[in-house]
Recover the amino acids of this structure.
């Protein structure tokens, strides 16, 4: 990071950036990381907003957006700094969330295995006899289209009778 930019930060902003160092991030849990993420996002939004407002206000005086670009460099640099710091914290939040998800998944799998092994076996009376297979039918018995075919034939016969009567 640019030392001049770091020197231009206020004390609270400098502390906020210092909280994103690797050692400081390792000590935070998922909720702490989310809180830090929110505070950094607020700082980034503040400097993006300040930069855009100042740049748009400078356009009429200078004559165009390109001419007003070199002005307001400090806010643009601060917004970029907080954007890069936010990306770092976002990656750590993703890692923590993935870790928590995997822990929850393993807990659920272990609980399901424990419940399955602890469940009592069904008594022999409830099980079907070995010679017979009791399973539901795969398909329902239908008329095989007989009714539909008869209806179609009758409709054709009515149509033909109508023509013949003319």
């Amino acid at each position: 990071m640019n030392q001049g930019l770091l020197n231009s930060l206020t004390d609270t902003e400098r502390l906020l950036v210092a909280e994103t160092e690797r050692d400081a991030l390792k000590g935070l849990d998922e909720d702490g990381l989310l809180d830090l993420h929110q505070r950094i996002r607020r700082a980034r939004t503040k400097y993006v907003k300040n930069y855009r407002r100042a740049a748009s206000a400078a356009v009429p005086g200078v004559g165009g957006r390109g001419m007003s670009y070199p002005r307001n460099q400090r806010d643009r640099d601060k917004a970029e700094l907080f954007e890069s710091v936010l990306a770092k914290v976002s990656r750590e939040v993703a890692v923590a969330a993935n870790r928590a998800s995997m822990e929850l998944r393993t807990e659920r799998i272990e609980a399901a295995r424990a419940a399955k092994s602890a469940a009592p076996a069904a008594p022999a009376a409830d099980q079907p006899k070995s010679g017979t297979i009791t399973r539901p039918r795969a398909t329902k018995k239908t008329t095989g289209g007989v009714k539909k075919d008869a209806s179609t034939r009758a409709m054709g016969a009515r149509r033909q009778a109508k023509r013949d009567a003319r």
